[in-house]
Amino acid sequence: MAKLAENEILKVDGLKKYFPITQGFFNKHVGDVKAVNDISFTLNKGETMGLVGESGCGKTTASRSILRAIDPTEGEVLFRRKNGNVVDLAELDYNKLKDVRSEIQMIFQDPFSSLNPRMSVLDIIAEPLVVQGWPKEKYKARVEELLDLVGLDKKYMTRYPHAFSGGQRQRIGIARALALEPELVVADEPVSALDVSVQAQILNLLDDLKERMNLTLLMVAHDLSVIRYICDKVAVMYLGKLVEIADTEELYTNPKHPYTASLLTAVPEADPHVEWLGENLKGEVPDPSAEIKGCNFASRCPYAKDICENKEPELVNIGDNHWVSCHRKEEIDLTGVK
Amino acid sequence: MANNNILEVENLNVHFHTDEGIVRALNGVDFKVERGEAVGIVGESGCGKSVTSTSVMRLLPGVGEIAAGTIKYYDKNKKQHDIINLKADGEHMRSIRGPEMSMIFQEPMTAFSPVHTIGNQIIEKLLYHEDIDKDEARRKALELLKKVGISKPEQRIDEYPFQYSGGMRQRAMIAMGLACEPQLLIADEPTTALDVTIQAQVLKLIKKMQADYNLSLILITHDLGVIAHMVDYVNVMYLGRVVESGPVEEIFDNPAHPYTQDLLKSIPRMTGNEGKLASIEGAVPDAYSLPKGCPFHTRCRKKIGEVCESAYPERQEISADHYVNCYLHQDLGDK
User: Fold this and answer.
1) Do the beta carbons of residue B56 and residue B249 sit within 8 Å?
2) Does A229 contact B277 at a Cβ distance shorter than 8 Å?
3) Which of these three, B151, B181, B211, is where a domain ends?
4) Could you report the per-residue pLDDT of B238-252, keeping only the tens digit for each?
5) Which CATH superfamily includes the segment(s) A8-103+185-190+216-324?
6) Which of A228, B14, B148, B229 qualifies as a FRET site for A219, CA 20 to 30 Å off?
7) Is B310 contained in some domain?
8) Are B80 and B74 a contacting pair, CB within 8 Å?
């Protein structure tokens, strides 16, 4: 089995998730939707990584394959457990997986559908504790502790989710995710369903918890300003592949992949004095089931040349842990944000 | 006549009669749109920004009632129409809705009928309002689709909405909004459902169309980034009222209402933030039981005291065309 370096907690290697397309009476297999197509990255202990991309790029599928909510088609997901053992999440059987799952938790996007309306806050937050066999006397005190941690009053413990606002519900979801002191937390768009004023509360809470609990966080999001606020490093995903990985500051100020640059300049900054360059991409994302010979971004890339359409670029390290997959990374001059 | 306004909304009150009680969605909304101007309405969910636009279009659902206020619309010939007193589904309102003012909705998948082709839906609008035959209408629809940047419009015109991608559907929506060449275009969260690169395309298209057709625009959104780059004048709404309004640069440079100030400080920036984000404590109060006085006093960190709970503060002009409803900007005297 491949190894993890001392400070690494997660190593994803060649992860693929294909969804088969079938046709006809016999469900003949006619193709695959390549939702996640060979992605690799590592995550260090205590680090927060953002996985960013537009809808349909496979970021949610990637995060779900990593925690085995769905079975990946191919690839390795090495995870260092609390006790120091390294396991491959992609090939663990059901029983062993249950044990490991106490160390990996998830925060969901929609605070309205991710909490069972028929369970009280106490039951919701205690659920992971119950599953892991905590006795009832012990878990109540733990739930109180958790409510305090996420900034909710413990007197709310007996209430049901409908009594809470979106922001408060998201706090409950976070408390549930932290109940077992996980090593790794995967947050899938944790703030995108919230209003800006409430979004700021939750972002501050996550930032705070990250420091206090030395959390390792994998955050899936489409909002680049949110990613910038909370993440130490960022992986940009396009059509099932990672096109660029770098430390946050480096990625935002010195993007090397044309797609990253387009994403950065497409966002209008909330300041009328900052020039908005807007869009330089033509067309829309291609069908993820199509066979693409070269670079999968070539059809929309303003810098595409012959080589881009014929040869697939590799994700290479260009120094300082900045990884880019582009044939023309040295030739083109891209602007980021200041 | 010096009046160059195309729309004047004054003291608009809209109530929804639901089983749980009356929801006071709008509690005296005032704003105006000058001819050719782009006006933004910004606020968080539940503040009444969409209710404002549907009231202007007279498209409120059955449980919604315009309880008080006036909406005046000035048409191509500067003739005044008193929108509130028109029958919502009457002949007069229908002659305004479409050729005079038109709307782009947030979710183009639900705004289009799924069982008619995009082309037929645009043609239907043209045939209803204009005195032309089918061939002429089809030619016009084709031209519109071309204008909004739909590739292969000859083929696309006969396709159904599900065959379009999200960005294209929104383009088609804009084409439909522009059919019959309206004077006023209301765009309600036109890019919220779209990805950033597609959002940029659609926003640029709306800007271009505004210039090409010399449109007046009302842009409704929760995204302050979109507001900053798309409009000339901003109305900030909170719980059914416009709490601050001003030219876009004034609002961003010198926000006067504590709500606007905090809202601006609570957004994460692309350029990075200094220190922590400011967040507004608590959540938006329930619309069934609105707080007395200033609706923001329950969350305001600059609350003066009882005066904020007593009555709603009057509108105050603090610089040219910059208005705010807040006691901080009033001479309270011996109160």
Assistant:
1) no
2) yes
3) B181
4) 999 999 999 999 999
5) P-loop containing nucleotide triphosphate hydrolases (3.40.50.300)
6) B229
7) no
8) yes
Q: Which of A84-93, B103-112, B305-314 has the least mean pLDDT?
A: B103-112
* Phi then psi dihedrals of residue A97, to 5 deg: -60, -40
- Please indicate, yes or no, whether residues B70 and B130 belong to a single structural domain of this protein: no
Contact: B263, A269; criterion CB under 8 Å: no
Same domain, B6 and B150: no
How many other CB atoms are found less than 10 A from the CB of residue B21?
Answer: 11
Q: How many angstroms separate the CA of residue A232 from the nearest CA in chain B?
A: 12
> Across the interface, which of A168, A249, A272 has its CB nearest the CB of B229?
A272
pLDDT on residue B97: 92
Chain B residues near residue A193 by CB distance under 8 angstroms: none
A99 touches chain B (CB under 8 A): no
A254 reaches B (C-beta below 8 A): no
Long-range own/partner contacts, residues B254-262 (CB < 8 A, 24 or more apart): B254/B319, B254/B322, B256/B318, B256/B322, B256/B324, B256/B326, B256/B328, B256/B329, B257/B296, B257/B324, B257/B325, B257/B326, B258/B296, B258/B300, B258/B301, B258/B302, B258/B326, B258/B328, B259/B296, B259/B299, B259/B300, B260/B236, B262/A197, B262/B301
- The ipTM estimated for the assembled molecules is 0.84
Question: In this structure, what CATH number is given to the domain that contains residue B237?
Answer: 3.40.50.300
Cβ of A198 and B279 within 8 Å? Answer: yes
- Cβ distance A200 to B278 less than 8 Å, yes or no, reads yes
B295 located within any domain: no
List of chain A residues whose C-beta atoms are within 8 Å of the C-beta of residue B280: 197-198, 200-201
Q: Break chain A into its structural domains and give their ranges.
A: 8-103+185-190+216-324, 106-181
Do B114 and B193 lie in one domain? The reply is no
What is each CA distance from B283 to A196, A221, B222, B299, in whole angstroms? 11, 23, 16, 8
Does B37 map to a domain? yes
Do residues B86 and B190 share a domain? yes
A272 at B interface, C-beta within 8 A = yes
* B134, B248: one domain: no
A214 touching chain B per CB within 8 A: no
Asked whether residue B125 falls in the same domain as residue B225, the answer is no
Using the Cβ of A165 and the Cβ atoms of chain B, whether some distance falls under 8 Å is answered with yes
Which residue in the set A165, A197, A207 is minimally distant from B266, CB to CB? A197
Q: Does B273 touch chain A (CB under 8 A)?
A: yes
- Rounded average pLDDT over B110-135: 93
List pLDDT tens digits, range A92-113.
998 889 889 899 999 998 888 9
Binary contact (B277, A204; C-beta < 8 A): yes
Q: Which of B204, B267, B272 lies closest to A196 in CB terms?
A: B267
Q: Is B66 on the interface with A (CB under 8 A)?
A: no
Does residue B273 lie within any of the structural domains?
no
Chains A–B, number of C-beta pairs less than 8 Å apart: 130
Nearest Cα neighbor of B172 from B107, B119, B226, B219 is B119
**What are the pLDDT tens digits along chain A (338 aa)?**
567 888 899 999 999 999 999 888 888 888 889 999 999 999 999 999 999 998 888 999 999 999 899 999 999 999 999 988 999 999 999 888 988 989 999 999 888 899 999 999 999 999 999 998 888 888 899 999 999 999 999 888 999 999 888 889 999 999 999 999 999 999 999 998 888 888 999 999 999 999 888 899 999 998 899 999 999 999 999 999 999 999 999 999 999 999 999 999 999 999 999 888 876 787 778 888 888 889 999 999 999 999 999 999 999 999 889 999 999 999 998 988 87
Residue B2: the pLDDT is 55
**How many domains is chain B partitioned into structurally?**
2
**CB nearest B195 (choices: A55, A226, A270):** A55
Mutate to test the interface with B, among A168, A169, A195, A223 (most CBs of B within 10 A): A195
| pLDDT mean across residues, chain B | 91
Residues A278, B45: C-beta atoms closer than 8 Å: no
Is residue B187 located within the same domain as residue B79?
Answer: yes
Residue bearing tokens 């004034």: B250
B28 and B54 share a domain?
yes
Say whether residue A7 is in contact with chain B using an 8 A CB cutoff. no
Structural domain boundaries enclosing B128: 110-181
